[in-house]
Amino acid sequence: MGAWRVYALGDRAVTVSFGDVVSEDAARFVASLRRSLELQPLAGMEEMVPSYTTLTVYYDPERIRRSEAGALAGTVSDWVAKALGDRLSDGVDGEAEALLPPVEVPVCYEGAFAPDLDVVAGHTDLTADKVIELHTSVTYRVYLIGFVPGFPYMGMTDPRLEVPRRAEPRLRIAAGSVGLAGRQTGIYPIETPGGWQVIGRTPLRLFDARREPCCLLEAGMRVRFRRIGKDEFESLSEPWH
Fold it and tell me: 9-47 pLDDT, tens per residue?
């Protein structure tokens, strides 16, 4: 376990930080601690919010006071911070988390599904096939879900695929579109405006409010992209009800 610190975020939350640099190590520690707290929640814990390098734990102070009255040597925030520190000192099982297989996401990188593929190829001085090869050669970490429900911010891409966002965002990007921005890749879960460079589309539905869980991907998961053709795209497409 690398360096970490715990600090209060108001009187109902505590944040665990694993540094200020976005990295696979930090993301793995965030995912592992979150998994540990899912399996063995702290008293009074209500919600966890993961980010690139932090995990924020929200709690109910009154529930903690009632259940841990004999153990409160200071404030409730102090108790939560110490409980998280003890959990980290004991170690969280990052190795077990790493053994979980990545989620496979099929992507068609052809024609209208990939309006910016040639732009990315030109910017990076690569062929379109090389862009696809590099994009499908990495196992990505889902850092967080945001922007719209179900949108996964994932990284890091191969450094040769680092590209800026579009100078002029599109007003409509189709659901399932796979994009690049900086050294991150993401998937638009619903039709929405956006400025990422779109290089493909997946037939999988990233967000469905009627499904449980509603998001296909969650922070901490690992993802691999698999290249498919238009015929397989059609066969895998999920109908809207």
Answer: 988 999 999 998 888 888 888 988 998 899 889 989 999
Find tokens 């068609």 and name the residue: 108
Which tokens belong to 152?
A: 């996964």
What letter would DSSP give residue 224? E
Rounded to whole angstroms, how far apart are CA atoms 141 and 27? 7
Report pTM. 0.85
- Strands, E, within 110-176: which ranges? 140-145, 152-155, 170-173
Class of domain 5-98: alpha beta
d(C-alpha 181, C-alpha 164), whole Å: 5
> What are the residue boundaries of the structural domains of the chain, listed by start?
5-98, 103-236
Instruction: Specify the CATH class of 103-236 in words.
Output: mainly beta
Nearest to 190 by CA among 159, 128, 148: 148
